[in-house]
Amino acid sequence: MENLLMKLYVNYFRFCRSGINFLCRPFYMFCWEVVRLRRTITIFALLMFLVLGSMPLSAAAGETVYVIPVKGVISSGLAQQVERGVDEAEKMDAQVIVLDIDTPGGAINAARDISKMMFRTNIDTISFISGDALSAGALVSFSTEKIAMANGSTIGAAEPRLGNEKADEKIVSAWTAELREAAETRDRNGNIAAAMSDADISIPDLIEKGKLLTLTNQQAVDLGMADIIKNNMEAALDSFGYSNVEIVRQNPSTAEQVARLVTHPYVSPVLLTLGMAGLVLEVFTMGFGVAGGIGLLSLALYFGGHYLAGFSGWEAIVLFVLGIIMMAVEVLIIPGFGVAGIGGIAMLLISIVLASTSVAQAATSLVIALLGTIILLLISVRFLPTRKWWHRFILGEQQQRDTGYLAGNEANKAYIQKVGISISPLRPSGTVELEGEPLDVVTDQGFIERGTKVKVIKVEGRRIVVRKHIEKDV
Question: Based on the domain organization, do 90 and 41 belong to the same domain?
Answer without folding.
Answer: no
